[in-house]
Amino acid sequence: MIRSLRGMNDMLPPENSRFASFIETASNIAKKYGFEFASAPLLEETSLFKRSVGDSSDIVGKEMYRFNDKGDNDVCLRPEGTAGIVRAFIQNKLDKKGGIHRFFYHGAMFRYERPQKGRLRQFHQFGCESFGEQSVYEDANVILMVRDILEYFDIKTTLKINSLGCSECMPPYKKNLVSFLEINKNELCQDCHRRIETNPIRVLDCKNEKCQNTLTDAPKLLNNLCKVCQSDFEQLQIILKSHNINFEVDNHLVRGLDYYTKTAFEFISNEIGAQSAIAGGGRYDKLVEMLDGKPTPAVGFAMGIERLQELIQKNVPTREGYYFGALDENAIETVFTKGIQKRKTHKCHIEYKVKNLKKHLNSADKINARYCAVIGENELNENKIWIKDLQEKTEFYESF
Ligand code: HAM
In this structure, is residue 77 part of a structural domain? Predict the structure, then answer.
């Protein structure tokens, strides 16, 4: 038997209707925040991700589905959504046009990681990217949007924030950090030795306990921010507090993608195991320029839909629509007609076989219908339908 590839899942009912309803809700919230739908190809030139996510990142260095196509172009399946949207933004000359452009997107991303609970090789993201707005209020705006989406589904998370500085304060900090890391090299793991050469700030979020103990005395970026970055980060915290958003400042939150400047954030859940990041994002003011566009400030986020689904499954009742059934041979025609009418407004399953009430209720329950509607001899005589709400456990009649 041929099976799906490791870390790549099928999506069948009822998951796919939950998936669709998540996309619909998140899209509606994004639209309210002024974002419009955009989509970019799943396959892009490999250099797009090398130059944006970064050559030294694990995503580009180890996890890409990369190959040469029949025209010998070096291409790869997108490991994330931001780079493609930025490329589309530049290619369509929106950078030259100026003004504010806000996009949301969703779709499959591919990373050749070691599959485990919450970590797939093909997974889906819902993301937003906002271009042209320098103000830290926009950082707060996207964080508030993530909060609204999570709140809609009653998902509890912890928000972690950090500032990664800018081209003024990051380079001297990096130098400082590297000196510290070189002095303490013997206390650090092999991965960190490599990172000192390739991307030293990624040493800060090493999961190794010994490394973390060593890093307690490392210079802190938050103590080395330039005036502008410092005041933006303070203001972000004031805005979040005034909107009742709880957060933790995490000095070691550096994110796994190289394009971030200033604000970086992650929403973490402690209900889904080790792969606990539900959403992540931040500001990337240099990326448009790095990909040959006109310098444009930008900020965005992406959330992992499969990780969210795990939590939504726990929280949201999945019952939906009607089940219609006949208790008597004479009622079949009426059940069919009333079921068809109900379909104008609701999802509706019509059962053609006559069954007793208990069997109809069981069948309605099996297909996760919210309502079980039945018509028998009595209902036919009185022109009404008997309905049970299987979620609220209440019963009532509807006339016809
Ligand atoms: P990211 O943190 O790499 O950021 O991914 C965002 C989210 O995608 C994660 O928080 C997680 O929920 C989900 N995710 C990542 N990898 C996997 C996986 N292997 N399996 C399942 N879920 C996964 C980005 O991708 C950035 N493009 C976010 C962004 C947008 N920053 C600015 N704009």
Answer: yes
288, 309, 330 - which closes a domain: 309
Ligand 1 atom with the smallest distance to the CA of 113 is 19
Contact 107, 125 (CB under 8 A): yes
Q: How many alpha carbons lie under 13 Å from residue 390 in its C-beta half-sphere?
A: 22
Q: Is residue 5 part of a domain?
A: no
Q: Within a domain: residue 155?
A: yes
Ligand 1 contact via 111 beta carbon (within 6 Å): yes
Q: Kindly give the distance from the C-alpha atom of residue 332 to the centroid of ligand 1, in angstroms, as a whole number.
A: 51
Q: Tell me, what DSSP letter sits at residue 17?
A: H
Domain around 349:
322-399
Closest residue (by CA) to atom 8 of ligand 1?
Answer: 304
List the CATH number of the domain containing 81. 3.30.930.10
Instruction: Ligand 1, residue 302: give the atom nearest the CA.
Output: 28
**Considering the domain boundaries, does residue 349 fall inside one?**
yes
* Global pTM value: 0.87
Q: How far apart are CA 248 and CA 233, in angstroms?
A: 13
Q: Are strands 371-375 and 43-45 parallel, antiparallel or unpaired?
A: unpaired
Q: How many domains does one find in the chain?
A: 3
> Tens-digit pLDDT profile for the chain (400 aa)?
999 999 999 999 878 888 998 999 999 999 999 999 999 999 999 999 999 999 989 999 999 999 999 999 999 999 999 999 999 999 999 999 999 999 999 999 999 999 999 999 999 999 999 999 999 999 999 999 999 999 999 999 999 999 999 999 999 999 999 999 999 999 999 999 999 999 999 999 898 999 999 999 999 999 999 999 999 999 999 999 999 999 999 999 999 999 999 999 999 998 888 789 999 999 999 999 999 999 999 999 999 999 999 888 655 567 889 999 999 999 999 999 999 999 999 999 999 999 999 999 999 999 999 999 999 999 999 999 999 999 999 999 999 8
